[in-house]
Amino acid sequence: MSRSASGRSRRVAYMMSWFPAVTETFILYEILELERLGVHVEVFPLFGRHGTVKHPGANKLIARAHYRRMFSWALLSAQLYWLWHSPLRYLGAWWMALVGNWRSWGFLVRSLVVIPKAMLFAREMQRLQIEHIHAHWATHPTLAALVIQRMTGLNFSFTCHAHDLFIDRTMLDQKLAAASFAVTISEFNRKLLSDLYGEEAARKIIVVRCGVDQDIFRPRPRARTSQVPIILCVASLRDYKGHSHLIEACRQLKEAGTRFRCLLVGDGPLRRQLEAEAVAAGVRAEVEFLGSRRRNEVAALMARADVVVQPSVVASSGQMEGIPVSLMEALASEAPVVATRISAIPELIRDEETGLLVPEKDPRALCVALLRVLSDRNLAQRLGRNGRRWVLQHFNLRGNVVRLAESLAALPPASARPLETAEKPKARHTRGSRRAKPRVRSEKGV
């Protein structure tokens, strides 16, 4: 699918903050699908691994991922190499990143880690003859890709999702200008970027939706497998996921005499707070915190669920959803879905057709919608059938990754600038002979 001019498989470097990350299965399965299509992917995590749960298929990528410690001879050696051979590029990259990030304290501090790692990765990409870089998230991974472009001449692209657009857009204009193309996951995000950065940026933006593997998430059993209905929520325990409103909706369900179990899959910084809220609401026996689970375990839970709920909100920080992959998985499983009407969620959940939408931060509306689905089997089945058809048509993993692979294949053949000849043994010169010009010009004094 993606081949260089020589006909061999194109070599692409994938950059992300953490790999694997339990909440970022979309990156893992995008890479696996790209490799199935013929793209050779090298994985470069900036900060290492995150979490202990490993999804199926991750091990073979973990085994060859380029994990590098911050304090190491290899990292120091890379800084010295670039400082000696390309001092203007090296110092210019530092200046670009520090000046570009000085208004954002968090980005500025992390750039002190990102830039040295990018210098090391730049050397490794030269050795591996990488032809293109693709970064996931428009924050630190794309900054690293921009630095590597400055040092090696490699082109890059990036995918932006949610917090990297909604909270802090530091240097995003520069990243868009330098990228070969930019991917975003929804029409909502594409319009936001176009409104912010104009027509020139808009021409570089393509929409490649996250997708779901229809072979893993299949239609659920028609018959209820439990006497007590199961409400399932798959989301990290963070403020913008809206779990507090779901707990209050559960209190109202219980007060109305409805029997149910509410299973919360995911972990995060709010776990203790949410457990305390469940106790205070009198629903601790009904609300179960299951922690992080593997994809196959989530698929099994989707098959048992009577309704899948996503009570997301726009947080005070501005953080909000892109399009939750867990909702795509629910629809692919033919589970009826209740979600909030924010951000790009309506592109997936079409109200009364592929699911039910309610206003954010409205536990009463959430409770009413859950009651409708739990009490009306015909409604639940209709939403489930429509939802699976919609996902297979618009949010299919293989179909969507094909578009990304085609965008990579359409790029002109490229590779990093060759390793500096100064690394190689220097030719001897006899008296009176002219010194041979190096194949790669030094930047000293330029």
From TrEMBL:
Q: Which organism encodes this protein?
A: Stigmatella aurantiaca
Q: Which InterPro entries match?
A: Glyco_trans_1, Glyco_trans_4-like_N, Glycosyltransferase_grp1
Instruction: Write out the GO MF terms.
Output: glycosyltransferase activity
Tell me the leader sequence span. Answer: none
Which stretches are tagged as biased composition: Basic residues?
426-439
| Residue span, Glycosyltransferase subfamily 4-like N-terminal domain | 112-215
List the residue ranges of the region (Disordered).
413-446
Please report the name of this protein according to its UniProt entry: Glycosyltransferase involved in cell wall bisynthesis
Do you know which PANTHER family this protein is assigned to?
SLL1723 PROTEIN (PTHR45947:SF14), SULFOQUINOVOSYL TRANSFERASE SQD2 (PTHR45947)
Domain Glycosyl transferase family, residue spans: 226-390
Provide the alphabetized UniProt keywords: Transferase
